[in-house]
Design a protein that fits this description.
This protein has two domains: about 50 residues, no CATH class; about 40 residues, no CATH class. It contains four helices and four strands, in the order αβαβββαα.
Length: about 100
C-alpha cells in the first residue's frame, strides 16, 4: 500500500506498479485501479499484473512468455486475435461464472 500511496501523491511523469492489488479484496482492487487510471492521465504508467481483469482499461498490453513479447495490443485487439492473452483472459473470466 505504501507504493500505491507514493504513486498517488508523488509528482512524476512515469509510474511503475508491480502487482499493485495482490493483497486487496476485489472491491478495493476495483477502486484502486479506477483511481490509478484517472491519476495516470497525461503520464506514462506500467502495471504488471497476472489478474487480467485489470488490463481491460489500459491502452496497450504486452504479453510476455519466456522473457519475450509474444503479443501486443489493446484488450479488445488481443481478444480478437484469439491468442495466448485471449485464452488466459477467458480462463480467468470463466472462474467468475
Amino acid at each position: 500500500m505504501l507504493g500505491l500511496a507514493r504513486a498517488y501523491f508523488h509528482e512524476t511523469d512515469y509510474v511503475i506498479l508491480d502487482e499493485p492489488s495482490a493483497s486487496l479484496d476485489p472491491i478495493t482492487e476495483d477502486r484502486i485501479f479506477e483511481q490509478l487510471y484517472r491519476l495516470s492521465e497525461g503520464k506514462s504508467a506500467t502495471t504488471i499484473s497476472h489478474r487480467l481483469s485489470n488490463t481491460t482499461l489500459v491502452n496497450r498490453i504486452l504479453v510476455l512468455e519466456d522473457g519475450r513479447i509474444i503479443e501486443e495490443g489493446s484488450h479488445f485487439d488481443l481478444l480478437r486475435k484469439n491468442g495466448k492473452y485471449a485464452r488466459m483472459f477467458k480462463l480467468q473470466a470463466n472462474r467468475y461464472q
